[in-house]
Amino acid sequence: MEDIGAGTAQAERQEEWSLSPSRAADFMTCPLLYRFRVIDKLPEPPSAAAARGTLVHAVLERLFDQRPANRNPHAAAELLMPEWDKLVAAEPELAGLFGDEQEREVWLEQARDMLGRYFTLEDPARIEPAHRELEVTTVLSSGLRLRGYIDRLDVSAAGDVRIVDYKTGTAPPEYYEARALFQMRFYALVLWRSGGTVPRLLQLMYLGNGELMRYAPDEADLRATERKIEALWRAIQRARATGDWRPRRSKLCEWCAHQPICPEFGGTPPPLPDSVVPTVPQAQVSTVPEARTSTALEPPVSKASPAMESI
Q1: Which of 121, 130, 272, 287 could form a disulfide with 155 if both were Cys (CB 3.0 to 4.6 A apart)?
Q2: What are 79-119's pLDDT values in tens digits?
Q3: What residue spans define the domains of the chain?
Q4: Phi, psi torsion values for 88, nearest 5 degrees
């Protein structure tokens, strides 16, 4: 008989000793946030914004089950409630996000607006994705395992690859564009290292305001991304070895569920789990360097107008 407990422990260990774009972003944002989510595995209450993002992603995934001629705004709107019902069935706590029916309807209308903007950015009748919600993984030469899920992968008849990611927020200011593209470079690196193909195009679709961001990577760019990820992982390992998971205050703290136990807000983090014991005395701890995204020698990012464009 399979040891379910052992299997769960192994899965948790794999998560702790691998890196995804979201967990990498957590550490770059705030090492203590990374600790709370990966090491302590503290629960976080569901948020209306996150739930809306999950719902819109589910609708766009299911939209491509339709025949091309039926992939239209009406079909997307018709999918909204069935997909919401599936989400609530899987996570009943989502039903408690709203104070009343009117609040839920306003929230649903915002999701409908985002789906409507999607159709101003591309014509799904002209697209046949090679993959949707594709799990990708690779192991770097250092032994670090990278993992993630790609919203959509398009492959042209000529073999050109496009990675597509849906965002339910608005496009970031120019200063934050490189940070926004880190996730896409991460996926491109995984595909390149696992299959040898450099994606021709990385495409972010911002459904909050109807903008596209496009970026064409090359091998040099992906090698630089790999070096950044390796440096980031070394910083994570130092934090694990020393127990120095220091907080980093920013505007994002406003949305953090862990403010009550964060030192920046007068709180006290819980003791580290017994399985994570620092190996270096705290007196020897040095500042964990902040991993920064370099924009030097990078090809320009293209912010596209709402028009259909082939790979």
Answers
A1: 130
A2: 999 999 999 999 999 999 999 999 999 999 999 999 999 99
A3: 1-44+129-311, 48-126
A4: -65, -35
